[in-house]
């Protein structure tokens, strides 16, 4: 399955869009149909959340602790919202749980296994193909080394690997031409080094303000502050008991949080999506430490549960409205593309701008191959970096080019002769 690159960019390996191959492969392997129905995507995300909860349940011998962690996880705003959405945060949360469980075994002084070490590294690399920043979990191995010299060498190796692996993913598998980081790299290549540092500082200050001070709603703000409190508990646990797993989780959160403020966005739910995979690990540290924060979070999250459920309900209503408007009317609305596109080679189709609207239900219905098996790619804008556009899918009949086919509100126009 080739994912839809709506920015017109393709990876150098596999021709994938800016999220890389991992999501496309897992959806393509698990989806029982040739399109992605809403029920499948929702069920898949919900299943990942349930698997995370089950792993936590079997990990803890003390089931009271397990129940606390699971309750804290399931009543988390982002976990609840994204378990019933198209956004695939649930699988990243599952990776966070698996990596924590492996790391907790590794940091146990009575456990020394090269196979466990290798498994942890392989799972980290696999998780990083879904979200590049999971590579930071490698830094959680730092407390395993006894001497400062060993820690320094490992930190240098880890830094080199993290940067090179991230560049490899970004350059070959998941091109991402938009956003702050892409603009920063562009200015760096133009030798505007002072502007790069100024932009970094400005972006960091702006993100820090939005995360720590900007108030959207009580539930939205509470769960941001909960991360800071849990991080403080992890630091306290390490300083008071020497817990290596607490130190590992603290290092991973500190680096992830800092990287988010420096290079990513801490607004518009981006911060909750970015940090959600770390929440189970932080909560397990809080519960194991038996911190008072455990009970404070439980009380607050249960108090905020009606607000959380309102968010979930609003999200489901929005998706259901989109589904009934665009999908339920005609699931075969784009089948005419499969039969009308050129059979001579791959085709690039220009889509209407509204395909970029969040929650658009037409996107999962677009065919990825022609009737003869040739690849179909999509974009929503024509840029100098984008490939040659062969066809345009338009809402009306008024468009430059020769009309090839039409069904309902959509018409396919030929813009250039495919090779």
How would you explain this protein's 3D organization?
- The structure is a single chain.
- This protein is mainly alpha-helical and 419 residues long.
- The protein is 58% helix and 5% strand.
- It contains 16 helices and 5 strands.
- The chain has helices at 22-30, 38-59, 63-74, 77-82, 89-106, 114-130, 148-173, 180-189, 193-212, 218-241, 244-263, 270-275, 279-288, 292-303, 305-327, 335-340; strands at residues 347-350, 376-379, 391-394, 402-407, 410-414.
- It has a 5-stranded mixed sheet.
- Helix 2 packs antiparallel against helix 3 (63-74).
- The longest helix has 26 residues, at 148-173.
- The two termini are 23 Å apart.
Rounded average pLDDT: 81
What is the 3D shape? globular
| Percentage of β-strand residues | 5-15%
Helix content: 55-70%
Main sheet strand line-up: 2-1-3-5-4
Q: Please give the oligomerization state of what you see.
A: single chain
The Rg value, from CA coordinates, equals 23 Å
Taking the alpha carbons of the first and last residues, their distance comes to: 23 Å
**What is the H/E order?**
HHHHHHHHHHHHHHHHEEEEE
Tally of separate helices: 16
> How many runs of DSSP E, i.e. beta strands?
5
The chain-level structural class is: mainly alpha
Which stretches are low in confidence, meaning pLDDT under 50 for 5 or more residues running? 1-8
Largest sheet: 5 strands, mixed
């Amino acid at each position: 399955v080739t994912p839809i690159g709506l920015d017109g960019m393709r990876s150098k390996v596999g021709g994938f869009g800016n999220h890389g191959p991992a999501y496309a492969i897992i959806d393509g392997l698990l989806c029982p149909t040739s399109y992605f129905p809403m029920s499948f995507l929702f069920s898949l995300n919900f299943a990942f959340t349930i698997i995370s909860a089950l792993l936590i349940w079997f990990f803890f011998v003390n089931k009271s602790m397990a129940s606390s962690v699971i309750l804290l996880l399931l009543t988390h705003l982002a976990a609840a919202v994204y378990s019933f959405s198209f956004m695939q945060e649930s699988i990243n949360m599952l990776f966070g749980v698996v990596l924590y469980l492996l790391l907790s075994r590794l940091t146990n002084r009575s456990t020394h296994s090269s196979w466990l070490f290798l498994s942890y590294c392989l799972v980290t690399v696999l998780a990083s193909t879904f979200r590049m920043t999971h590579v930071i979990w490698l830094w959680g191995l730092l407390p395993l080394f006894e001497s400062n010299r060993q820690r320094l060498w490992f930190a240098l190796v880890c830094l080199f690997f993290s940067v090179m692996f991230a560049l490899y993913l970004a350059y070959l598998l998941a091109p991402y031409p938009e956003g702050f980081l892409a603009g920063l790299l562009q200015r760096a290549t133009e030798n505007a080094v002072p502007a790069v540092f100024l932009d970094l500082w400005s972006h960091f200050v702006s993100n820090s303000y939005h995360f720590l001070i900007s108030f959207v709603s009580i539930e939205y703000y509470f769960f941001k502050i909960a991360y800071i409190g849990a991080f403080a508990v992890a630091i306290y646990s390490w300083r008071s008991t020497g817990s290596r797993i607490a130190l590992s989780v603290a290092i991973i959160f500190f680096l992830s949080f800092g990287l988010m403020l420096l290079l990513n966005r801490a607004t518009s739910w981006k911060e909750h999506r970015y940090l959600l995979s770390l929440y189970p690990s932080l909560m397990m540290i809080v519960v194991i430490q038996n911190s008072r924060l455990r009970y404070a979070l439980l009380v607050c999250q249960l108090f905020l549960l009606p607000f959380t459920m309102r968010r979930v309900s609003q999200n489901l209503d929005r998706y259901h409205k989109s589904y009934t408007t665009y999908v339920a009317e005609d699931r075969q609305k784009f089948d005419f593309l499969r039969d009308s596109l050129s059979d001579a080679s791959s085709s690039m189709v220009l889509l209407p701008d509204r395909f970029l609207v969040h929650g658009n239900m037409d996107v999962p219905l677009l065919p990825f191959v022609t009737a003869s098996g040739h690849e179909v790619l999509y974009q929503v804008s024509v840029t100098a970096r984008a490939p040659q556009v062969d066809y345009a899918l338009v809402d009306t009949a008024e468009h430059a080019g020769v009309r090839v086919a039409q069904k309902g509100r959509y018409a396919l126009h030929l813009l250039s002769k495919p090779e």
